[in-house]
Amino acid sequence: MLFGVKFCGGCNPRYDRGKLWKRLKEDFAGKITFELAKESQSYDGLVVFCGCTNTCAGYKNIKTKRKPILIWDDKQYDDMIETIKKKWRDED
What we know:
With 92 residues, this protein is an alpha/beta fold. It has helices at 17-27, 77-91, and strands spanning 2-7, 33-36, 42-43, 45-49, 63-64, 69-71.
């Protein structure tokens, strides 16, 4: 399974988005591949790391089979994990 990852521009980051992405890749190692999203690629899922509640990261041109997961606070990590696990199970 392939998930795209999109980052906002980082003008007002309130948490370490890169650190959370690293943790995400480690938590799903060998199960889901995460890569920086490209408009030319289609993804099983998309995670959008926004630095704040403005959630202004542009992701509308990225093709994904499921609704994108937007995260704007590191406290949302556990909910994001559960959402991804559900999407992964739904694909099996």
